Amino acid sequence: MKRRGFIKLCSTAAVTAALSPSMLGTALAAEPVLYKRAKLMDRAGKPIKASQLAVGEEYVFHYPYNSTPVLLLRLDKPANGGVGRDGGLVAFCAVCTHQMQYPRKGDANLFNYYHTEKSSAAERSGVIVCCAHNSVFDPAQGAKVLGGQATHPLTAIALEYDAATDEVYAVGTRGQEIYEDFFKAYKQVLNEDYGRGQYKTLVEGQAPVSLLKEFVSMQVRC
Ligand code: FES
Question: CB neighbours of 86 closer than 8 A, spacing ≥ 6?
Fold first, then answer.
């Protein structure tokens, strides 16, 4: 485990030695890279309670940088790397590993989760689909690629769960990061959205969580 400060990871996925065969080939197989710890907060500024997140809803927050979006999902079943009382809480970098489509505030969004709704591109539900070129990822299996143009799983966000308080922290990443490529590709847009040179600010302390459907202007589904 690469350490950027002492931290105790409560996620089952945090223990490399406990990796199951099904994790291999996913972001969960990699050792976590630890960033600054950030507690997930609701829009009222109160800590998110994991058990109060809606199953199947799409949430977004930014981590480990203030400009890098994360898709937060509470699945209806335990997931590899999942945390929370039911083991279904997972988070992945919401930048597609194909050509870096991502949800931008106030913009149309092609990168979505299909809970009970069937994606026509994937011909199934329970998947994350990037409609730019129909890449399909399985959030219950470390966002491994199920189809489309992407060849790499989404970067997983390492979550720490406090069972006593039901609160959740983002603490790092797991798997191949594409942040530097993302910054290079979207430098002009990120400067416009976050202020010149501010888009590489590391998130620390708190990470506000929004509903994805309220963060973007519209969700384009496929
Ligand atoms: S950018 Fe996501 S599938 Fe191409």
Answer: 51, 74, 77, 78
